[in-house]
Protein 1
Amino acid sequence: MTSDQPVVAPEAAARGLVVGTDGLARCAWAGSNPEYQRYHDEEWGRPVHGERGLFERLTLEAFQSGLAWITILRKREGFRSAFADFDPDVVAGYDADDVARLLNDASIVRNRAKVTAAVANARATVGLREAYPGGLDALVWSFAPPPRRRRPRPGEIPAVTPESTALAKALKSHGFVFVGPTTVYATMQAGGLVDDHLDGCSAPTNPAVVKE
């Protein structure tokens, strides 16, 4: 075992955790990969508010569909550049030439359906400001489930919930696309509407959604 590999102690493994060389217990998916560790420690499960932040999470989770999340993390700066730092007003103005440009941009995932979905969702985000008081932030957070304790085992973390199914339906009613319940639940995890770090994980709890 090299010095940068996590320790998979039997008691930690049974709880879905690994212990890093820094002595911190993490959800096993974070492993020893530095990009995963950084995302796990600093972002995943933390509350995200504001149009840009939520539009970014929704867009990235849609692009991740069918791919490993590490692919998205490694291309994240490319995505931010390609989509104007996820400014909905700018992306909403993208035309066919912009789509063609993005489909030739190796710094992102070049998938036509996902690129056009990002543009459509930017337009839906802008339109939501008038259709729904508080816009995307208010709509998304209105579907946050009640606070609960952290889950004790990885097998208890769902891929879809009643809240993600309802939010997906609401988003679609406002013109969003590529927002199935699974993608939406992943967005809820990424945006801190839920805290799916396992019990015993060293990541700080999200006090808005975790009962101590």
Protein 2
Amino acid sequence: MKFTIFIFCLIAFQATVSLSQNTPPPPRPPKPKIAEKPMPRVKVFPPRELMQQENAAHTEKLIAVDGKVNVQLCVLEGNLKINGWDRNEVRIFVKDGSRIGFNVIEKSKKTGSPVWIEISGVETTKNQPKQSSECLHGDEIEIDVPRSASINVKGQETKTVIDSVRKAVVKISGGDISLRNIAEGIVAVTYEGDVTVENSSGAFNLESATGNILAFEVSPSEIGDIFKAKTTNGAIALQGLEHRQIEVNSISGAISFNGDFLSGGSYNFGTSNGVINLTIPADSSCKITASYGFGGLKSEIPINKIIENKSPGGQNIIGTMGTGDATLNLTTASGAIRIKSKK
């Protein structure tokens, strides 16, 4: 009986073990989900060359030329700087303005290099082809040219600075003109602005409708070169001039001259409303004719009077200093004439 019970218990235990081995384990609880971070967007830039073209704030261009090239250009507005350099090339840089175009007008028959070029603007508009414009414009316009180049500038409102070229012609509506180290002559005309010339040679024709004219250390480059300066409303100051022929006129403004009178020279200074101040060597020699209204004539250098005429409108004096080698004409309708001895 006990054996039977034992056998029964053994069979039940084996059945239980077998059942537990064939039953799959309970499923594991799911892992908590972790929030995924969005991937950062990658910025794609255009090539560097393309960026510079699209965002360009300036243009630059270069052309090989003959050393004595004639360069002409028109500037609508902007600050213009022209410098001479030791290369037979013309380089132009324009900041925040028009594009650049070169027009070769004439080439050298010997070398084939351009001897006469025109610099023009090139305008671009959306969905339109490039169109040539006569005048440049921009905040800054810089040009490098050969030192033997001749420059011809015309324009509207522009401040012009030219340094170290052979010749310069500048005619603008408004803006100051500054010229330095010009070798063979200057024409500078502005209707509203100052004209300043220094350390230059040649024949000079300087004009300003409303502005001052200043010239320092200038001389002729050829015998017979004349210095002329004229302003409607402004002062004229001259120092260190070596020309034998000088013609200076101002309608309303003072005239100052500090220099020497050369033998055989002709010096003419006139103003309708202003003072004439001369500072000359004590041994100056000239024949002097002075006409003045109010203010009189005062001279630290003795004048040998020949003729003196008085009238209700003024006074005329004809006399000499020294032996009278040069000719000096002084005229002021309303202002004094003062002659000082150079220390």
